[in-house]
């Protein structure tokens, strides 16, 4: 079962958390302000590897957390950022 | 007839040429269907379809094989209804047996608000050509005698929308039918040829770098499932896609036979019977983006608990297999097809949990776009630039995405 490491509650099953999306990263090469807004609002890096995300520990400490996670794996994959 | 007895396929493999008019990355349903329609409808046969593994090894071989058109917005309903009709004639057209079987789909509602949503969707479906009727619990019971109308005492069935044209087909056979049809016309399908990079000339994409050497192309189409963000990043294209795992499982054979497909938005699950008699079940996609094909026991527990509320006979069956596919979920739950803004590079992606049913229409529309350079009417609403134009196609008409 996938688990996340909560800095307040320790390692908990992923069912306790609500996914809040990755922290948006707009590439530097996009310079047009409008295009940057579109990218910020809609686009995702969606990397196959390390990513930095926001998760809400709904069934635990009820805090929003920054979590680094490896999307190539599905086991215990996270440490707090 | 056993589905494994009659497997005579006329697949012809060729060594790669240094150059093609069109190179399609990904030999799953969408990639092969595009190649097939390019060859058969537009006479474009100098085409290669590149596959990192074997044909149909990705999501084309991992889905729950349901074909339906009862979506939530007119653009989607028209598109999927066209696909459903193409599926009906696919056996005649390709001469391959794809085990297509029209079953009808019962979409259950357990609350008054769900009933209202289903009534509205039913009317919209009818208006857009997808035959759907509302049925009472008793009528639902006639269509599916195994249904527990009390929902295990917890989820009483207040009614259902019945999508008459819904069907299933054997997913591998659909892939093989398109592969064989395309190969007969001279399309090269190159297995075990992973793409490692894109060849660029300035901004333009001019070919692909593969593990077996470079191949130049007049046009490159990414029909990749799962790793599309990685491929698009090679062309500096940004996509509104997240890749989530989606799990499913089958039980041992249920001898009595089970007619329709059952789908349920409130419990997030769907049930149908395969041609071998196994009960096939799936649920919503996993909450975390991941490229892992690992399956979880949690899913078996939660999905079994839900489906046995509705269909108590499933308690007597045993789970045979479970598996996972990785789905490209777009931000607005609609597919993304067509131009990317980078010359020479097209995508057909965002097929999340609704890709199998769209294979014929997706392939046909992409082939028309490639061959004529004009955007077909059915494809037009689903272009990538809809996000920049602030016209997203928000459609939560999929069981797994409500």
Task: Annotate the secondary structure layout.
The complex is a heterodimer of chains A (81) and B (402).
Chain A: E1 3-6, E2 10-13, E3 18-22, H1 33-42, E4 50-56, E5 64-70, E6 78-80
Antiparallel strand pairs in A: 1-2, 3-4, 4-5, 5-6
Chain B: E1 19-25, H1 29-42, E2 47-50, E3 66-67, H2 74-88, H3 90-94, E4 101-102, E5 105-109, H4 112-127, E6 132-135, H5 137-143, E7 159-163, E8 167-168, H6 171-184, E9 188-190, E10 195-201, E11 204-210, E12 213-222, H7 228-234, E13 241-253, E14 261-264, E15 269-273, E16 278-283, H8 297-310, E17 319-330, E18 336-339, E19 345-349, H9 359-372
Parallel strand pairs in B: 1-2, 1-12, 2-9, 5-14, 12-19
Antiparallel strand pairs in B: 3-8, 4-8, 5-7, 6-7, 10-11, 11-12, 13-16, 13-17, 14-15, 15-16, 18-19
Folded structure, characterized:
- The complex is a heterodimer of chains A (81) and B (402).
- By secondary structure, chain A is mostly beta strands.
- Chain A has one domain: 2-Layer Sandwich (Folate-binding fold).
- Chain A contains 1 helix and 6 strands, in the order βββαβββ.
- Chain A has one helix spanning 33-42; strands at 3-6, 10-13, 18-22, 50-56, 64-70, 78-80.
- The radius of gyration of chain A is 14 Å and the shape is elongated.
- Chain A starts with a strand and ends with a strand.
- Chain B is an alpha+beta fold and 402 residues long.
- Chain B has 2 domains: 19-63 and 171-241 and 332-401, FAD/NAD(P)-binding domain (3-Layer(bba) Sandwich), CATH 3.50.50.60; 102-164 and 244-330, 2-Layer Sandwich (D-Amino Acid Oxidase, Chain A, domain 2).
- Chain B has 9 helices and 19 strands.
- In chain B, strands 1, 2, 9, 10, 11, 12, 18 and 19 form an 8-stranded mixed beta sheet that branches. In chain B, strands 6-7-5-14-15-16-13-17 form an 8-stranded mixed beta sheet, sandwiched between helices. Chain B has a 3-stranded antiparallel beta sheet with strand order 3-8-4.
- In chain B, strand 14 and strand 15 form a beta hairpin.
- The longest helix of chain B has 16 residues, at 112-127.
- Chain B is globular, with a radius of gyration of 21 Å.
- The model of chain B has no long low-confidence stretch (mean pLDDT 92).
- The chains are: A mainly beta (81), B alpha+beta (402).
